[in-house]
Amino acid sequence: MTVLGDFGHTQDTVKAAVSNGIPPPSFEMPLPDSPEIITANLLKLVGQTPNPRLKFIYQVLVKHIHAFVKETNLSTDEWMAAIEFLTRTGQTCTPLRQEMILLSDVLGVSALVDSLNNPVAGGATENSVLGPFYTDDAEDVDMGESIASEGKGDYMYVEGRILTTEGKPVPNATIETWETDHNGFYDTQYADRSHPDCRGRLHTGEDGSFGYRAVVPCAYPIPGDGPVGELLLSMGRHNMRPNHLHMMVEAPGFHKLVTAFYPDGCDYLRSDAVFGVKKSLVVNMEQVDDDTEARKRGFPRGGSFKLLKHDIILLTEEQSNAIRQQVIGEIEELYTPIKKA
């Protein structure tokens, strides 16, 4: 006989249902006759969690979720609507589309986690969200070459140096960089993509310098045809990201930096749909109207171009770990009463 087992999976042999092997708690718990008792009982059960970090996370999670339900006096219909929304969000995910990450993005959770895990000091360059359009197939680009094929947008030249917090150059650092074209699309959004475009990989010189040709990126909408798009519409929020240039920098002994630079003047800078913009990452681009200079830098059509000139400051792993531990200590102090519970 075939029966449905755990979570609806079929089993060909009938067997008695079994528990997970954990016995009942050794302490007494009152029957959950009130909302307060439900929360208290769950916290007692969560207190049995063997892993201290997980125990702390579960305790805080329970307190906040139960407080949210009580404060909003959540109705059964609203609760079911939330369950169905999360179900549809998961079902929308594919190998090329991560709707759950998109949900985390628009709720500011992705940016918050990134900021907490990548604190900076000493003038180091701040991080920004990675986003869903990074690929590992970028082609190597020599100093001064282009990451974009001709006709992908208005010319832009990007240059600067990778430095330590003491101002020393970081030679042979690896830079991964990617951006949208003039249509506001990444290369992976084109069905006929045959090779990487508007992305590249390069290395700094002995003096920490880098330079490459690119195109001026455009503001673009995050996917709005799924549950997350519906959520933004229900909030009266747009789904636009300001134009930006992604850069990821790695060098031995240094903390990996994932960041982006946002040209000043975009209408969406202060309302980025995924909260990726930071004040220090907003940059000015110089307008260069010099045909000779444009051709000298390798732009085939000459004319004018935008110049984005910005240095990047890296933290060593030791510096990053020290700052991170300080932040963790400050946060844990706030939750000491919960951890002792």
TrEMBL record:
Highest taxon of the lineage: Eukaryota
SUPFAM superfamilies documented for this protein: Aromatic compound dioxygenase
The Catechol dioxygenase N-terminal domain, residue ranges: 51-124
Cofactor (UniProt): Fe(3+)
Keywords of the record: Dioxygenase, Iron, Metal-binding, Oxidoreductase
GO molecular function, one term: catechol 1,2-dioxygenase activity
Pfam family for this entry, one: Dioxygenase_C
Keyword field contains Iron: yes
GO aspect biological process, one term: catechol-containing compound metabolic process
Residue stretches making up the Intradiol ring-cleavage dioxygenases domain: 131-293
Family the entry assigns: Belongs to the intradiol ring-cleavage dioxygenase family.
PANTHER family: DIOXYGENASE, PUTATIVE (AFU_ORTHOLOGUE AFUA_2G02910)-RELATED, INTRADIOL RING-CLEAVAGE DIOXYGENASES DOMAIN-CONTAINING PROTEIN-RELATED
Protein's UniProt name: Aromatic compound dioxygenase
Originating organism: Hydnomerulius pinastri MD-312
